[in-house]
Amino acid sequence: MNTDQLVISLTFTVYLLLLLAIGWVAYTRTRDLGDFILGGRRLGSWTAALSAGASDMSGWLLLGLPGFAYLSGMESIWLAAGLLAGTWLNWRTMAAPLRSYTQIAGNSLTIPAFLGQRFRDDTGLIQAVSASFILLFFIFYTSSGLVAGGKLFQSVFGLDYTWAVAAGTCAIILYTAVGGFLAVSWTDLVQGLLMLAALIAVPVVAINELGGIEMTFNLVKQSNPDLLDAMTSSDGAGLSLISALSLLGWGLGYFGQPHILARFKAIKSVAAIPRARHIAISWTFLTLTGACLVGIAGIGYLDSPLSETDSEKVFIQLVGLLFHPVIAGICLAAILAAIMSTADSQLLVASSAFTADLYKGTIRKTAATRELMWVGRITVILIAIIAFLLALNPDSKVLDLVAYAWAGFGAALGPTLLFALYWKRMNRSGALAGILTGGITVVIWKQLSGGIFELYEIIPGFVLSSLAIIMFSLISSRPQAAIVAEYERVMETNS
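RESULT FIELD:
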């Protein structure tokens, strides 16, 4: 190991020790399952906003999106625009009613528990079905983070890919299993700020080294003029309607992401949401802009073009060329921050779905609080192991894995939650139909190709799920008077 690698290694070690210390402090404040899953619903505006953003963006923000911008140029703006619009709509439409409704509806700690209570599903079927989809898609989502971690450690330290993935997995497991939701949220606050700093610093320094933004665009134009046209792909072909809709369609996914929605449920009060929303939108705008500019700057800065397989390493390449090893170590730690801030949230939500909705909901209804907390911790480890095994393929692309899981959650849970919060005529049949239709559509659509099937699977999944909710709700009996009364009480609270 040379001197530069040693300095970067020390930076990483200090960073990891800081996260573990936060995890231990959170462990001392975790008293019951409510603390472990939602931190006792006491997050402040800054923590909720940055934790939601950091857990949302993951390693793909510093690897996948810059890599996509490096290959496609200004076409990446469509994806960034969809994500920014989705973030705003999610905070605007979901945060306040979900915070109020989950507390009124039996103090529901998880999304499946909320849906079960919202529609008075005594059979537990809604909880079981929604929890199963959460477990399925989170395994793929968590796997994407472990792939990103493997690529990071492999590039920086020259580790064997398998050992690189294993190292990242162990670090995430340690503080997530120990500290629960508080550890995850507090570390996300730190990690969100670090990600923001890195995504501002890297493109600013790179563009300055190239002679300014105009010179950077001129270099990109010399490389491939089509990269500067948002309406064409990198090969000069016009951007198709299917491609544009697929990129914008990412915004639909926000309504069904359990790890992001958990921050809405955990914020200390509805009154804290407007401030949190402003912080979250500002953070998202800056980080998405920075990530796209990293890819654009990489086109002009790197002497040896990266292959499509290695395009997701453009941020790592720029950091190594631009900065002193100490600063480079901090910037590379931002990738680790992005990976860990999402993977820990995903592991925790998946663990919660199993512990609260399957284990306590159907397997062992009399389980005590302490038993449930330990089941939750063990589940974190088991899910991480399965995700680790899926991540062992070094040819996996981070963005592809994220896209599949993102679509699964967006289609299976997004329409169901939106209708549950805004349509009092919706009933149990509609909820079940929406979850099943959305989830199954994504799974099937992903296996097909050509023509209309090139459309990102979240769009047909979202549309068909919405139609199923409306149709099955209308052809079945009206919801009970008590359910309607509870719904109206929530709407009055948030009016």
